[in-house]
User: Fold this.
Amino acid sequence: MEPVKFALIGTGCIAQTHADAMKTCELARLTAVYDGVPERAVDFASRYGVAAATTLPELLARSDVDAVVLCTPSGARAEPAVAAAQAGKHVLCEKPMEVTLERADRVIQACEKNGVKLGCVFQSRTARNVERIGKAIQSGRFGRMVLANAQIRWFRSQAYYDSGQWRGTWRLDGGGALMNQSIHAVDLLLLFAGKPRRVFSFADALTHRDIEVEDTVVAAILFESGAMGTIEASTSCEPGFPKRLELSGEKGSVTLEEDAITRWVFVDELPEDETIRREGAAGDSIQGGSGSPTVSSTEGHRRQLEDFARAILENRDPMITGREGRRSIELIRAIYESAQAGRPWDFQKGGLD
Assistant:
């Protein structure tokens, strides 16, 4: 199969991760880049030996661009995504797809209307251990799920927030520790525990100055299954600790730290469990960021780019569709609404309780 030709929109830190990932991805080839600051696009393009477009329409008119990856600030993805869809280009959005449900829905609707693929980057889902946990849930090994918790005690310096005017703003960052740093854990929590029914939360900026958004948040969740859970998220916990998810049911419990399994215990032991404990302890090393915004490995992005390219070539849905990516935005926005109002958010009512 011929590789799918990709362009990057936005040339910041995460764009470099995608460009590097494409170097080792057989079915994805970088051909062009665009940035709102032309000098950045030219510099980035020269480093990777690709074309630099001076305007977005110029980029989207190129015949050597089949798909785009949105690497702009979070709250600046709807407009270029819609334009790309209208130009017949497939769209892969970095997380979060957008910062409000209204803007996310604009992207989803534009891609569906124009018949192009829409995917959302959540590279944590590509980990082998995430697949193992999913299979254990589907086969009923947990019995009834009781608790599902996510803990993201990370650290970002004040210099991190000062490094870009968009960081720490509601309009372009869409939130703080939860929307930006913790959305991968939120996505996995929803994947494992299912739809939420109610949430009640607290949020505040405890250690960072001059940011509009939170650097610390705690939320209590009641899921539709009846299971309960919590999310702890912060960028104020020096020096930063591995992301941690804990799942406990009446018949077993699993703990995932980053993408390594540190606990795998079930009442009904199976022959493969010891192998899972041994192999799962190593993980795939595809996720990091507890103390730094730099992505240490491109493997998760490579896997997701490969899947998205295959989805285009095989005319199927990508592993994480736009509608799937929307779920984490919905929960995060509900957590923010609850924290600001001091009242629970009810998902069945679609509003504060």
